[in-house]
Design brief:
The protein is of the alpha/beta class and 434 residues long. It has a domain of 207 residues: Rossmann fold (3-Layer(aba) Sandwich). The protein is 36% helix and 18% strand. The strands form 2 sheets. Strands 14-13-12-11-7-10-9-8-15 form a 9-stranded mixed beta sheet. The chain has a 6-stranded parallel beta sheet with strand order 3-2-1-4-5-6, sandwiched between helices. It binds nicotinamide-adenine-dinucleotide.
């Protein structure tokens, strides 16, 4: 798809007139690609490759293997050879016979992702640092692979538009794209949000999102590392790699707000943010707190707060206010609460296993799942919140979405890379990196 078409078909106004394509089924039956047809019988072994052998990637590989019998892990890829070695050790123990990775299917470096995609896999798990997700997703879909795609899916609007275009391509090819925005695969959260969307508290008038947690990790610099290696090892603390914690972590809460709002984007957002505690160099250029207000065309506002500081009061919850009452989504281990009544009363599977179960079932049943739209839009909401706080400006969705803002180098090699300064509201201009 051309860049021009991608922009005009994905403006906010276009979203408002489209329904959310979560499950794409029947109409694609005539245009299915070979990759999906190969597994239509439901009995073939699906070969899974993991790109990004860190904590989540290893976890996702185990979840995928838990999800059904006829799957095998056959390939591993990471930027760093030591991460591949650690994953070989950990995963061969964790998944037993389903571990069928041979040394010639282990890859390291900036092109490891492409080598894995070319190594006869059916499904790829994308679990690297977020910056690289649009590139890896595009390559996987171009090669006809089904994808499990961790959140967030991009760090800037150029990346978001690329992901949307790739997911349209996946739809045409009949490929499944399942998002790591895992609350969408939690049966309790699903029921609570569906009941709210069905009118259980009347019309939504406001949503309050809290994601107030302790501090997260950093990796100390080693003298033998180049600046590029240091930033990639310490990726969480560099905005061009992680998107900052409003995109990287808070996207889970922003995604629930978007889901409640029918996956339609807001008109604009403003916000306040900064860094008060995480001020040392190892924390790169990310903030430690953000507070945003996003405004929808129908007058609904989402008030969104995230903080990562030790020794403060924590809370992770979605509070929803309607014309006929109020609800909470995550309360009581995601049982949900609507006007004081618990919502979900059954037993539910681990959402982390369940997302892979649905992915494999969609491949085998010939009804591909395509989570592309919501995973891109929810990521974009985080980017909007970040840019509003970084600049101190009220930012229109359309202006940011259509901007040329792209973070980080355009080619990747070991050596030097600029160290971005910490954004200063009122001084940092919008759009950055254009
Ligand atoms: N859905 C969830 O609940 C959840 C939980 C944790 C993490 N995550 C997401 O998973 C992703 C990874 O997080 P993590 O905690 O596992 O981090 P991590 O640092 O443990 O792992 C990331 C791995 O990706 C590798 N990598 C980076 N760039 C790469 C590239 N270009 N090619 C190949 N490999 C590359 C790194 O070397 C590292 O081994 C993040 O996007 C994070 O937001 C999601």
């Amino acid at each position: 798809m051309s860049e021009t078409r991608s922009r005009t078909t994905t403006s906010r106004r276009t979203f408002l007139t489209q329904t959310t394509a979560t499950v794409v089924g029947g109409t694609l039956a005539a245009t299915l690609g070979g990759a999906r047809m190969a597994h239509a019988s439901g009995s073939d072994i699906l070969k899974v490759g993991l790109i990004g052998c860190g904590g989540r990637g290893n976890g996702a590989a185990v979840n995928a293997m838990n999800a059904e019998d006829n799957v095998r892990l056959t390939a591993l890829a990471d930027l760093f050879p030591d991460r591949v070695e650690e994953a070989k050790e950990a995963l061969s123990q964790a998944i037993g016979d389903k571990y069928q990775v041979t040394d010639d299917r282990c890859f390291a470096g900036f092109d490891a992702y492409q080598q894995l995609i070319d190594a006869d896999v059916d499904v790829v798990l994308l679990a690297t640092t977020p910056h690289y997700r649009p590139q890896h997703l595009q390559a996987a879909v171009a090669a006809g692979k089904h994808v499990f795609c961790e959140k967030p899916v991009a760090v800037d609007p150029v990346g978001v538009r690329s992901v949307l275009a790739t997911c349209e391509e996946a739809e045409k090819k009949g490929l499944s794209i399942v998002s790591g925005l895992c609350w969408r695969y939690d049966l309790g959260v699903r029921e609570t949000i569906n009941r709210i969307r069905d009118g259980a508290i009347g019309d939504i008038v406001a949503i309050h999102e809290n994601y107030l947690t302790g501090a997260l990790w950093f990796r100390a610099r080693k003298p033998e590392w180049s600046e590029m290696e240091y930033q990639n090892r310490n990726w969480y603390n560099h905005t061009w790699l992680s998107g900052d914690h409003i995109v990287e972590q808070f996207v889970h809460s922003l995604d629930k707000a978007m889901w409640l709002m029918g996956d339609q984007p807001p008109q604009r957002g403003f916000g306040l943010g900064g860094r008060q505690v995480r001020v040392q160099p190892e924390y790169g250029n990310i903030y430690d707190h953000f507070a945003n207000c996003f405004e929808w065309e129908n007058g609904v506002k989402v008030y969104a707060y995230t903080r990562q500081m030790a020794h403060c009061d924590n809370d992770v919850e979605d509070y929803v206010y309607g014309t006929k009452g109020r609800a909470q989504v995550l309360v009581n281990q995601q049982q949900g609460l609507i006007n004081g009544e618990p919502v979900f009363k059954g037993k539910k599977p681990s959402m982390y296993d369940y997302e892979h179960k649905e992915l494999f079932a969609s491949i085998r049943s010939g009804k591909p799942i395509n989570d592309g739209r919501f995973m891109a839009l929810s990521t974009m909401l985080g980017i909007l919140g970040r840019e509003a706080c970084y600049t101190g400006k009220t930012i229109e969705w359309d202006a940011l979405f259509n901007s040329d803002m792209r973070l980080g180098p355009t080619t990747y090699e070991w050596g030097d890379v600029p160290s971005e300064s910490v954004a200063t509201p009122g001084v940092t201009t919008f759009p950055r990196g254009a």
